[in-house]
C-alpha cells in the first residue's frame, strides 16, 4: 500500500538561487534609480550640511493674543509651509513664550522656504482696482494697467478663476497718455476709499470700483486719505526694495491699500480694495496637472462654508468688470503673489487657478494658499547662517566610533565563528549598500535628511543585524551538536531561527515606530533610520544570509566541518551521528555469552 504524500518538511532543501537573484535585481534596480535621479548621496540635515536659523518674535494683532494655543498653531502652519516645499528636515519650534526658531538646512528649495517663513502675515483675497507696470516699464503703461479697457485674456472654458500672471504681461495693446493714466488712477483711488468706508466681505467693495463722475469725498470724510493713497500709488516704485518693504505692510483688512507683485520677472504695482476673503477660509489648496486639456499646471482651492459664500459673492461682482477690475489679488504679507481674473461667479466652494504655470510655481502658490494664514504676526529678529563645521566634527567622531564598533564586531565574528564570519560580513555589506541607496533615494522622494541622530541609528543597526546572524549560526551549531550533518542542520535550524529573528526585529521596529510618533525634530531621524534598518535586516537575512548558507553547506570546506569553517563537530562537542536501529523479533542465533545469561 502506497504511503500518502506529505507536505514539504522543514529540512527539505530550498532553492537559494532564486532568493539571491531577487536581492541582486533589487540592488541593481535601486542603484540604477539612484544614479538616474542624480542623487548619489543622502541629503544632509542642518547639523551636517549647514543652513539658516531664523528667530521670529510674535506680535499680537487685533482680536488675537499671544498664548500657547496660537503659538502652537503658528508652529504647525510654518512647519507644514516649509516642508510643503520639500525642504529636508526643516525644524520649527517655540522658544520661550513669544519666539519661534526655524532651522532650514541648505539644499533644494531652502531659499524659497526661508522667504515663506519670513512671510508671516495673514493671507487675503482683495479685489484689484488698478494695476500697472512699475519702474522703467511704467513709462508706457498698457491699457489694462491703468484704464481697464483692453480685451480680457482668453478664458479657460470652465467656471473658475484663471491665472492672469502670464497673460497680463502679454496683454499690452496700445499706450495711453500719462494724463489719462493719472486721471484713471485718481478715480480708482477715490472709489476705493468710498468702498473702504463701508467694507463688506461679500465683495461689494469690488463692485464699487467702477470709475465714477462723483466728486471727491468732502473734507473730513476721507479726502485726506484719498489724496494720501493716490500719492502713494503714484509714487510707488516696486523695483525698489525699500518701496516694496513699505507697500501694504500695515494695511487693515477693511481698508484699501497699495501693494507690489512680480509677474514674469517684472514688477507691477496694485491698488487693492478691502479684503473680501480671509486666507483662513481656504480649507485646502493643491497643485494638479490637467491631463484632460491643455491647461497644464493648475491650483485647485477648496473653501470653508463661510469662505465659499464670500468667494461666490466677490467673484460674482468681479465678473461684471473689465480688466484689471475683474481680478482679485492674493495678498500675502502685503505682496500680491497672484492676481487671477474672474470669468463668472464661482459657487460651490471650489475654484481653480489656471494659466501658464510651471510646476514649481503652481506648487508654491498652492503652498501659500494652504499654509499662508497665521493666527499671529511675526517680526524677524535674527537670521543666522549655520556652518557645518561643528556637525562635521561630531560626524567624524560618530563615524570613528561606528568604525571601531564594526571592527570589534568583525573581530569577534572571525575569532568565534571563523569561516562563518565571511557570511556575516557579506550580509553586512549587502545591508549597508541597501541602506545607503535607499537613504539617497528617500531624500528627493520624501525629504528625508541624514542628521547626527540618524547616523547613530544606523550605527545601532549594525548590532541588530549582527544579532540576527548570530541567532541563525547558533541554531545551526545546535543541530550539529545533535549529530546532524551540515546540510540538514542548515534547513532544520532555519524555522527556529526565523521565529526568533522576526520577534526580535518586530520589537525593535515597534520601538522605533513609537519613538517616531511621540517625538519631534532630530529624534525622529534616529527613529526613522532605526526602523528602516530593522526592516532591511529582515530582507537581508531572508533573501541573502539563509540562501548563502544553503549554498555553502554544499561545499566541502563547510560540509566536512573544517576546523576553520566554524562548524567543526569535534570543537562543537557533537554527539555521534544519529542512526536508526531495528530490534530483532526473537532471540539471536548463535552462542550465548555466559555473562548475559
- List the strand order in the largest sheet: 4-7-6-12-11
Helical/strand content category? alpha+beta
Helix content bin: 40-55%
Largest sheet: 5 strands, mixed, barrel
Given as residue ranges, the uncertain stretches (5+ residues, pLDDT < 50) are 1-13, 140-185, 195-222
Number of strands: 15
Termini, distance in Å? 41 Å
Residue share in β-strands: 15-25%
Query: What Rg is obtained from the alpha carbons, in whole angstroms?
Result: 36 Å
Describe the structure.
The protein is of the alpha+beta class and 597 residues long. Helices cover 48% and strands 16% of the residues. It has 19 helices and 15 strands. The radius of gyration is 36 Å and the shape is elongated. The chain starts with 15 loop residues before the first helix and ends in a 25-residue tail after the last helix.
Amino acid at each position: 500500500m502506497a504511503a500518502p504524500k506529505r507536505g514539504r518538511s522543514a529540512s527539505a532543501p530550498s532553492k537559494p538561487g532564486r532568493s539571491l537573484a531577487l536581492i541582486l535585481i533589487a540592488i541593481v534596480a535601486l542603484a540604477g534609480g539612484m544614479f538616474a535621479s542624480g542623487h548619489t548621496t543622502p541629503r544632509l540635515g542642518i547639523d551636517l550640511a549647514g543652513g539658516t536659523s531664523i528667530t521670529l518674535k510674535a506680535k499680537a494683532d487685533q482680536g488675537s493674543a499671544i498664548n500657547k494655543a496660537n503659538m502652537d498653531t503658528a508652529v504647525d502652519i510654518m512647519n507644514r509651509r516649509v516642508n510643503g516645499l520639500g525642504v529636508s528636515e526643516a525644524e520649527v519650534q517655540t522658544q520661550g513664550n513669544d519666539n519661534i526658531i526655524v532651522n532650514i538646512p541648505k539644499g533644494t528649495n531652502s531659499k524659497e522656504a526661508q522667504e515663506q517663513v519670513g512671510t508671516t502675515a495673514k493671507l487675503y483675497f482683495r479685489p484689484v482696482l488698478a494695476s500697472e507696470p512699475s519702474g522703467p516699464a511704467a513709462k508706457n503703461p498698457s491699457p489694462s494697467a491703468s484704464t481697464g479697457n483692453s480685451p480680457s485674456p482668453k478664458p479657460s472654458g470652465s467656471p473658475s478663476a484663471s491665472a492672469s500672471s502670464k497673460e497680463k504681461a502679454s496683454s499690452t495693446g496700445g499706450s495711453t497718455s500719462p494724463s489719462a493714466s493719472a486721471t484713471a488712477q485718481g478715480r480708482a483711488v477715490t472709489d476705493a476709499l468710498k468702498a473702504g468706508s463701508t467694507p463688506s466681505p461679500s465683495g461689494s467693495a469690488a463692485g464699487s470700483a467702477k470709475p465714477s463722475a462723483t466728486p471727491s469725498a468732502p473734507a473730513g470724510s476721507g479726502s485726506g486719505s484719498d489724496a494720501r493713497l493716490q500719492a502713494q500709488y503714484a509714487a510707488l516704485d516696486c523695483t525698489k526694495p525699500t518701496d516694496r518693504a513699505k507697500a501694504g505692510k500695515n494695511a487693515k483688512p477693511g481698508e484699501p491699500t497699495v501693494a507690489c507683485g512680480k509677474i514674469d520677472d517684472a514688477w507691477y504695482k496694485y491698488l487693492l480694495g478691502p479684503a473680501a476673503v480671509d486666507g483662513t477660509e481656504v480649507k485646502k489648496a493643491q497643485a494638479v496637472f490637467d491631463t484632460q486639456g491643455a491647461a497644464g499646471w493648475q491650483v485647485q482651492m477648496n473653501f470653508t462654508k463661510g469662505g465659499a459664500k464670500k468667494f461666490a459673492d466677490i467673484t460674482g461682482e468681479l465678473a461684471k468688470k473689465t480688466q484689471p477690475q475683474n481680478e482679485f489679488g492674493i495678498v500675502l504679507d502685503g505682496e500680491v503673489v497672484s492676481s487671477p481674473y474672474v470669468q463668472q461667479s464661482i459657487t460651490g466652494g471650489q475654484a481653480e487657478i489656471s494659466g501658464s504655470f510651471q510646476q514649481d510655481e503652481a506648487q508654491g502658490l498652492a503652498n501659500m494658499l494652504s499654509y499662508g494664514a497665521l493666527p499671529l504676526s511675526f517680526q524677524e529678529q535674527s537670521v543666522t547662517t549655520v556652518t557645518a563645521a561643528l556637525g562635521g566634527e561630531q560626524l567624524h567622531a560618530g563615524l570613528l566610533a561606528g568604525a571601531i564598533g564594526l571592527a570589534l564586531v568583525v573581530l569577534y565574528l572571525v575569532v568565534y565563528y571563523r569561516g562563518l564570519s565571511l557570511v556575516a560580513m557579506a550580509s553586512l555589506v549587502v545591508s549597508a549598500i541597501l541602506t545607503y541607496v535607499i537613504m539617497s533615494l528617500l531624500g528627493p522622494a520624501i525629504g528625508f535628511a541624514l542628521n547626527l541622530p540618524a547616523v547613530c541609528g544606523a550605527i545601532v543597526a549594525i548590532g541588530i543585524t549582527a544579532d540576527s546572524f548570530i541567532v541563525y549560526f547558533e541554531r545551526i551549531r545546535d543541530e550539529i551538536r545533535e549529530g546532524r550533518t551540515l546540510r540538514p542542520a542548515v534547513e532544520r535550524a532555519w524555522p527556529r531561527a526565523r521565529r526568533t529573528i522576526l520577534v526580535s526585529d518586530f520589537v525593535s521596529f515597534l520601538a522605533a515606530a513609537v519613538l517616531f510618533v511621540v517625538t519631534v525634530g532630530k529624534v525622529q531621524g534616529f527613529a526613522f533610520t532605526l526602523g528602516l534598518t530593522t526592516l532591511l535586516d529582515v530582507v537581508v537575512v531572508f533573501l541573502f544570509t539563509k540562501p548563502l548558507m544553503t549554498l555553502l553547506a554544499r561545499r566541502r570546506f563547510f560540509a566536512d566541518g573544517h576546523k576553520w569553517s566554524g562548524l567543526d563537530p569535534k570543537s562543537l562537542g557533537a554527539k555521534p551521528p544519529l542512526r536508526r536501529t531495528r530490534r530483532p523479533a526473537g532471540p539471536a542465533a548463535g552462542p550465548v555469552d555466559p555473562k548475559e545469561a
